[in-house]
Specification:
By secondary structure, the protein is mainly α. It contains 32 helices and nine strands. The strands form two sheets. It has a five-stranded antiparallel beta sheet with strand order 4-3-2-1-5. Strand 3 and strand 4 form a beta hairpin.
Length: 988
């Protein structure tokens, strides 16, 4: 919306108007000239209404607020506005004593009522509106064609004609604007015109009124002034005195006589009349100019001059204040720069908002207090008086000086701020911001974006899990730097004026601040855009440079242990490991030559040293790990060779425990020279791998170095040890030969003892001691086997000593005779244990097939023993006894089979207990011994009858269940068919 800002172009007050419209007496007619000058000047002298009463918000420019011209005229008439009041007055009218208007109404049009800016918003073009044309009788429908910005005149065309008319804005109403605001606009213009015309009439009357000296100062006052000043000063005072009292007299007369058209003006208008020069002064150009200068200048007292000088000194100090950090010895991180900048800004803003106001107020108060009462009385307590005093103009002058200093400070500071941050890198400025695929094509050391001035910000390049990144997010630079500047500009709008602190007898609003540079000021916008453009463009090469380090991400996050494990799992040879080590060394040297310690990209000084050192260190770690792995492999291989040598030595140096052992060692020693030769060949291949380590100047640990030379010296030690071992074996053979004689005698005695014991033991046949007999039989059998094995060993030794063998026939015969006796007692003992488990365990856990199989095997084994004991009646009776025991258990199988029937339920077990006469609770979980105790063997038929009944009931129950399942299936099929029929119905 188009506005006229009183802050950007301050207008002179109404009190200055007489100086602009008064004319010399020698140029009649004065009324006509006065009218012409007033018509050109009064447009800037009309006081404006507050803006808040004029604004209107239009959300829809297509809406129609009034139905037609009649409704608009009705609204205007409500405000007391008639079409005739819009007419242009006759410019030839010279009778100022009449009530007719002589000033055009559009001169007093307040543009603050405009609803939009025609240059910015094109909604007015070719729209329909209402306009009024001479003779100002009716409003007509028109179409808007064009607009003249300088005079705010509009060209419109009536619908019923083809000719166009140029009319002022007050005669044009857009259908989308508020009609009441439009009426207020016309009313405000009429009120301002009436006030101006009345003031012109009053001042014209006062100027041409002849006083005849009756309004001159009294004699006492005249003598007092002449005594203190000069004649020139008294002439000026006399002129002012007479003019002032003439105005008072005329105003009093007009108040009493209401028949005239001129009304008594306000006090402000009456006071302004004193500026009218008298005819005497007007006739003297020098006196006239002196009078004008004395009345208009503020420097009428030296204290005012010194006050302004001190204020100017304070303003000069403000112009030199630092608002931003614009110099640093070296680049710093953005966070540190922001912190320093905030500290500097806070310090400066504290001075501007407090110290500057206090010091300026102090200087003004100290100087103006010396003047005392008068035009510079700082103790004035009435607004009407203060508004016409020179003090107000002085305060305004100070205000403008302070605002000018503040503006200079902000413009200078922002210029230095942008100049410091935008360090003139032409390569960055040449980048197109739309180039989203910008890439860093050169090497990583040379920067094509070297600025003319030093870099500003410090960044550290680091490696992330996904991509490399900087210690400060580059995207935060434009917003942060813009906010630093905008925040300072915003804070500078809250610096109070000096009026409230200087004029303490008056009451001021709390929101009186110095006018500062706005955020949308063209210079600020230009600098902000230059700053943002530079840093947004600088992000492209900055990110592209970091993206080049993505190639090193895999190396950076390589786990050394996992890398070595992969090498080990690949089972590489020593030559391949050598190539890997050489590759790591070459890659490390390449990093040293291709990755820089730092690089400068526009305003950024990037520290690459930590990442570079990390990558080089990782290459060194991988190289050291590979060397260590190769060293460990060689250590293991060398240790394995030494272990083989030690095994040979240990095998040769074993202390023989028998003659067989000696012969085994001798046989092994025959192959030792060949084993040593193969180990020497292995060690020579290992020495080649040690040369790989020497080629990389890798120092072996002391233990590995010692191990290497021990492995080389071992063959000689082994061969030397063989000679000593052979000499030792000669002495050991004689010792074992003597031992063999003693062992032979002891073996013969053992055979005789076991033969006598077995002969005595076989005469025992007590069936009640089956367990003891089976244990002893097994022990004797084991002893016989051990003696036979020992006899075989003795015969092998006899053969080694070249002696006659020992006869073992007695032992073989004894074992054959004892075998049947052992079989009898072991079979009997095993069967009794089985029978115990069958009877004692719960019936449910008994395997009937296992019982049947165990009975049959035991019976067959005992049957096979009968022929062997034909000549021994006592042992034959034992065999027959156990056969009867086995046969007596067979009937229990039928009872067990019936009782394990799966169809027996609790009711059946209860029936069995009742019929047999058992008082306890029976089930398949009870041991079979319980059934034997209650005589179930005697009630076999009863048990069979109950079992048959249980099976029949189960068959009947299963048949019943099958029938129920069939019926349920039929019902389910029926329900499914009914649901399908319902789904197929289409009439529902």
């Amino acid at each position: 919306m188009r506005r006229k800002s009183s802050r950007s172009s301050p207008q002179p007050e109404v009190m200055h108007l007489p100086w602009r419209i008064s004319l010399p007496e020698e140029k009649p007619p004065e009324s006509k000239v006065l009218l012409q000058q007033s018509s050109h000047k009064l447009i800037s002298t009309v006081p404006r209404a507050p803006k808040c009463n004029k604004y209107q918000f239009i959300s829809n420019y297509t809406a129609q607020r009034v139905a037609g011209a009649n409704e608009l005229e009705a609204i205007l008439q409500e405000k007391g506005i008639y079409n005739s009041s819009l007419c242009t007055p006759n410019v030839e009218q010279t009778d100022l004593n009449s009530s007719d208007h002589f000033l055009s109404l559009e001169i007093f049009d307040d543009w603050e009522y405009d609803t939009f800016d025609p240059a910015a918003l094109n909604v007015w073009k070719n729209v329909e509106a209402l306009a009024i044309f001479p003779p100002f009788t009716d409003w007509h429908q028109v179409s808007v064609l064009s607009q003249e910005p300088s005079s705010n005149s509009w060209e419109v065309k009536r619908k019923d004609t083809s000719s166009s008319h140029r009319i002022p804005r007050l005669q044009l109403y857009f259908l989308f604007e508020d009609p009441y605001k439009f009426a207020d606009r016309i009313a405000a213009a009429e009120k301002a015109r009436k006030t101006a015309e009345n003031a012109i009439r009053f001042r014209f009357l006062c100027k041409h009124l002849s006083s005849g000296g009756c309004f001159a100062p009294g004699r006492t006052l005249e003598q007092s002034i002449r005594r203190r000043t000069s004649e020139e000063v008294y002439a000026i005072f006399k002129n002012l005195y007479e003019s002032y009292h003439i105005a008072l007299a005329v105003g009093k007369h007009l108040t009493q006589d209401s028949s005239v058209a001129i009304k008594q003006p306000t006090i402000r208008s009456m006071d302004s009349a004193k500026h009218t020069a008298s005819p005497e002064v007007a006739r003297s150009p020098i006196a006239y100019l002196l009078d004008c200068f004395r009345r208009k200048t503020l420097l009428c007292d030296r204290n005012v001059f010194h006050a302004l000088r001190f204020v100017n000194q304070e303003c000069e100090m403000v112009r030199k204040l630092p608002l931003f950090i614009v110099a640093n010895e070296k680049p710093i991180p953005l966070e540190e720069y922001e912190k320093q900048n905030l500290a500097q800004t806070s310090k400066t803003m504290k001075y501007l908002q407090n110290s500057w106001i206090e010091r300026s107020t102090m200087h003004l108060h100290r100087m103006l207090a010396r003047i005392g009462d008068g035009n510079f009385n700082i103790g004035v307590s009435r607004w009407k008086i203060y508004s016409v005093m020179k003090l107000k103009r002085l305060v305004e002058q100070v205000l403008y000086r302070m605002q000018d200093a503040l503006r200079d400070l902000l413009l200078t500071s922002t210029t230095a701020y942008v100049h410091y941050l935008v360090n003139d890198c032409s390569a960055i400025l040449a980048i197109e911001r739309e180039d989203s695929c910008f890439s860093w094509d050169g090497n990583l050391i040379d920067s094509p974006f070297e600025p003319k001035r030093p870099a500003v910000f410090y960044l550290t390049l680091e490696m992330g899990q996904e991509t490399p990144y900087y210690s400060t997010d580059p995207d935060t630079f434009p917003d942060t730097l813009r906010c630093l500047m905008d925040d300072v500009l915003t804070e500078c709008h809250f610096i109070h004026t000096i009026e409230p602190t200087l004029m303490q007898s008056l009451i001021f609003a709390e929101n009186l601040f110095l006018s500062s540079v706005g955020l949308l000021d063209p210079l600020i916008v230009q600098r902000r855009e230059a700053l943002l453009e530079y840093y947004r463009k600088s992000l492209l090469p900055l990110k592209a440079y970091a993206a080049r380090y993505t190639a090193y991400r895999e190396l950076f996050f390589t786990n050394v242990k996992e890398f070595i494990e992969q090498i080990k799992s690949a089972d590489k040879s020593s030559s391949e490991i050598k190539e890997d080590i050489a590759l790591q060394i070459r890659m490390r040297e390449n990093l040293e030559h291709t990755v820089p310690l730092y690089i400068v990209i526009g305003p950024y000084w990037i520290n690459v040293a930590p990442l570079r050192e990390a990558l080089i260190r990782k290459r060194l770690e991988l190289t050291a790990a590979l060397l260590k792995m190769l060293t460990d492999n060689l250590r293991l291989k060398t240790a394995d060779v030494i272990g083989c040598y030690n095994t040979i030595n240990e095998r040769m140096c074993e202390k023989p425990v028998s003659i067989e052992h000696i012969y085994d060692i001798r046989a092994y020693m025959e192959d030792v020279p060949e084993l040593v030769s193969r180990l020497e060949d292995r060690m020579r291949s290992i020495l080649y791998e040690y040369e790989i380590l020497d080629g990389f100047l890798h120092n072996l640990p002391d233990a590995d170095f010692q191990q290497k030379w021990n492995a080389l010296a071992y063959p000689r030690l082994v061969l030397k040890q063989m000679v000593s071992v052979k000499e030792f074996h000669e002495t050991e053979v004689d010792r074992f030969r003597k031992q063999q004689f003693a062992d032979e005698a002891a073996f013969t005695a053992s055979i005789e003892d076991i033969n006598a014991y077995i002969s005595k033991f076989t005469t025992l046949y007590d069936v009640s001691k089956v367990s003891e007999m089976s244990v002893e039989v097994r022990r004797l059998w084991k002893t016989l086997q051990e003696l036979i094995d020992e006899g075989h060993i003795m015969n092998r030794r006899q053969e080694l000593f070249e002696m006659a063998p020992i006869s073992l026939n007695n032992l073989f015969e004894l074992r054959t005779a004892f075998k049947a006796y052992r079989e009898l007692w072991t079979v009997a003992a095993d069967y009794l244990k089985l029978e115990e488990t069958w009877i004692g365990n719960p019936l449910a856990s008994v395997d009937l097939e296992g019982v049947r199989r165990g009975l049959q095997q035991t019976h067959d084994s005992l049957k096979d023993l009968l022929p062997l004991f034909r000549d021994q009646p006592q042992l034959l009776a034992v065999v027959e006894h156990f056969i009867l025991v086995v046969e007596s258990f067979r009937p229990n199988l039928d009872i067990m089979e019936l009782l394990k029937c799966p169809y027996l339920e609790a009711i059946h077990w209860g029936q069995l207990a009742k019929e047999i006469g058992v008082k306890g609770k029976l089930s398949v979980d009870v041991g079979f011994d319980v059934f034997l105790e209650h005589g179930f063997r005697d009630h076999l038929e009863t048990v069979r009858r109950v079992v048959v009944r249980a099976e029949q009931q189960r068959l009947e129950q299963e048949a019943h269940w099958a029938e129920e399942e069939r019926i349920r299936q039929i019902e389910e099929d029926y329900r499914r068919a009914r649901a399908e029929r319902r789904q197929k119905r289409t009439e529902i």
